[in-house]
Design a protein that fits this description.
The protein has one domain (3-181). It is globular, with a radius of gyration of 17 Å. The chain has helices at 3-17, 21-38, 42-57, 60-63, 66-88, 95-112, 119-133, 138-145, 149-158, 161-164, 170-181. With 183 residues, it is an all-alpha fold. Helix 2 packs antiparallel against helix 3.
């Protein structure tokens, strides 16, 4: 069983149930960082789910509708199914469940959202930004998150991330990663 993944999905479900926007964003950030560390794009999908849930939860015109309750239940079913799969088989193929959850996010975003661009696309930019902030190159972050590199560059340019995180040499980055995952 992948303890990190199961633990974080449970945190995601709990944050969703309590509409804890800050926690949803934190969990999304954790998934993005872990996706970068593991070089596993599958984990980006959880970051997108978490960020999307946080953005929806911020919108009273969405959370006050019956569609929201149905949507949350469906997302919970998908996340619960993934946890069950992972408990049975550590390297279970849960992409069908994450894909279905993302499909529901896109549906709700299209029917109820007042978003200029797809909420999932925004979430991909946020996930890529987290990876960039943790040491990924712009290109690597965009590729792993499935985000548009130009949009990512524009977004990062409007943030304070370049000021907050000093650039470090590649050798030092490699040493830090080796400490995390081993040689």
């Amino acid at each position: 069983m992948d303890d990190f993944l199961v633990r974080k999905i449970i945190e995601l479900r709990n944050a969703k149930d309590s509409s804890n926007i800050a926690k949803l964003k934190d969990v999304g950030s954790d998934f993005a960082e872990e996706a970068f560390v593991r070089n596993d794009a599958r984990l980006v999908e959880f970051s997108i789910i978490a960020y999307s849930l946080a953005k929806f939860a911020e919108k009273p015109y969405i959370v006050g509708t019956p569609k929201w309750a149905d949507f949350r239940e469906e997302i919970d079913d998908h996340l619960g199914a993934i946890v069950d799969m992972l408990k049975k088989t550590p390297d279970a193929n849960y992409l069908g469940e994450t894909g279905a959850a993302l499909h529901r996010i896109n549906d709700l975003s299209a029917t109820m959202g007042r978003f200029v661009s797809s909420l999932a696309d925004k979430a991909r930019i946020k996930a890529a930004t987290q990876m960039y902030a943790h040491g990924a190159s712009l290109g690597a972050a965009a590729k792993l998150a499935g985000a548009d590199k130009r949009e990512l560059s524009k977004y990062i340019g409007t943030t304070r991330i370049p000021e907050k995180y000093a650039t470090i040499p590649v050798r030092l980055r490699i040493e830090q990663i080796e400490k995390l995952i081993g040689p």
